[in-house]
């Protein structure tokens, strides 16, 4: 389950470095490396080593990874629609404001 935020981060960004992925999902380098290794073995990502700095890698989704990301994104959109359909426009605005505030509290600086 901890793989989906990384897959979606790559889907929305079109691919990125492991450092950027970690920043986007709020996880440490070791956790990102483990998850990327699992996704690589499952065929959902490609890992490309930087030609200049061999310590850096770029991660992108494979066709299978894109398919998985699209499915996950569709589920999230449906979930969001289902929840928000029960709220008035004002309640939704207040909810979004509160969620953004909470994200700011838990997001590492």
TrEMBL record:
Entry annotated with the keyword rRNA-binding: no
Gene Ontology molecular function, alphabetical: DNA binding; DNA-binding transcription factor activity
Pfam entry (one): MarR
Claim: Transferase is one of the keywords in the record: no
Location of the HTH marR-type domain: 1-104
Keywords from the UniProt entry: DNA-binding, Transcription, Transcription regulation
Top-rank taxon: Bacteria
Gene3D superfamilies documented for this protein: Winged helix-like DNA-binding domain superfamily/Winged helix DNA-binding domain (1.10.10.10)
Protein name per Swiss-Prot or TrEMBL: HTH marR-type domain-containing protein
Record organism: Mucilaginibacter polytrichastri
Classification of source organism: Bacteria, Pseudomonadati, Bacteroidota, Sphingobacteriia, Sphingobacteriales
């Amino acid at each position: 389950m901890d793989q989906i935020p990384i897959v979606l981060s790559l889907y929305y960004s079109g691919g990125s470095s492991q450092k950027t992925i970690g920043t986007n999902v709020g996880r440490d380098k070791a956790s990102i490396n483990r998850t990327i290794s699992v996704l690589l073995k499952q065929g959902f990502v490609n890992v490309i080593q930087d030609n200049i700095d061999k310590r850096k890698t770029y991660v992108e989704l494979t066709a299978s990874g894109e398919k998985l990301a699209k499915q996950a994104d569709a589920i999230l959109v449906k979930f969001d629609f289902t929840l928000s359909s029960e709220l008035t426009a004002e309640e939704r605005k207040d909810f979004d404001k509160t969620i953004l505030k909470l994200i700011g509290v838990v997001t590492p600086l």
